[in-house]
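Quick one: structure tokens for this chain, please?
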Amino acid sequence: MMEDSWEYKAIEITKYNPIYRNELGHYMKDDWVGFFCIGKEYDGVVLTLEEYLKVEQRYIDAALVLCNYLGLSTIKIQGF
């Protein structure tokens, strides 16, 4: 988990680096978007199941850290 000194400044949780977005907010770099991309090459590197699961686990960890920080025991996702 995160260190206690970590500051919560994020307004979104994303794997997409904002430096690759154009002035309209479109992501301009070719990158994987889901499990069906496993085995395909992105930026010269083949996406493996291991790497896919590692990134997806980071989303889960971030959500758990946020819930823990806010003292939430449940969350409701709308418009997924």
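Residues 40 and 46 are 5 Å apart (CA to CA).
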